[in-house]
Amino acid sequence: MSETKLAMAKLIELTDDFTSEKADGKSVEVQFNPETLKLAFANEIQQPEGGDQASGTAGQQFVGAGSTTLTVTLWFDVTAMETNPVDDVRRKTKEVLYFMTPRKFESDESKFVPPAVRFQWASLIFDGLVTSMEENLEFFSPEGKPLRANMALGFTQQKILVSDFEGDGKVNLPGTKPREQAKEGDSVQKMAAKKGKGNDWQSIAEANQIEDPLRMKPGKLVDLNAKVPKAQVKLPSVEIGAGNVDVGAGISVGPQGAAVSLTDAANAALNLPQTIASQSGASQRLGLPSLIPPPLPKLGIE
Which CATH number is 10-49+58-157's, of 2.40.30, 1.20.140, 1.10.10, 2.20.28? Predict the structure, then answer.
């Protein structure tokens, strides 16, 4: 089985109109994926002059488009670099600082704006501008060079970000089974009956370790496919001799000996002494060794 490759977050430079990735733009892959992402949504609402606040939304006015902000913290550590290590962590963080630095606007060189950027991590795609950045340097070398840093970045886009997904997103996790949720007044017997398993409700309750199957808490998850396997008892065979004779009563004699084969282990355990005793006469008639040991010789002085 092939190992799933870890998806790493990236910063990708976009064209000024945010429509596509810039052909000769900068692309930076983070060294460590962030632990958390924070998304904030805002609408610009204006209260008209003379408006009645008690009238609710009718007395308010939406102006402009909504906005979404993304806050993320990235970590860099040159001591953990496996390929192309460097002596100063700022050699790595300056690649991220590039997206904060204003440059000439392509359509109007009199204007300076930071480059459009896309933060992409697997299915999360956020297109916007870097509006804030804070860098913390720590863990210095003997020469005073910082070896570790974290950068807090703030992105903004002038719309409400709504994630778009393909399919219904349902998955079957390996090693898990679908479970039913108990409702108010449910019992294991009632839940099992709905699935056509009313006769197995006791085994289902035991398999789910439910102490009180008649009074269940609402929301309890029950695996209605689980059952406790019935105990199987096997009686070891008993060798009684050699021959090719079927003595009967569950005793069969073959070339290598005879064995007791009983279908009902419980009855066999109770009736085995009587069965052996009843077959002792047949063994003698057939010339087979008796199942009952001979009596001990009497001891005494004549």
Answer: 2.40.30
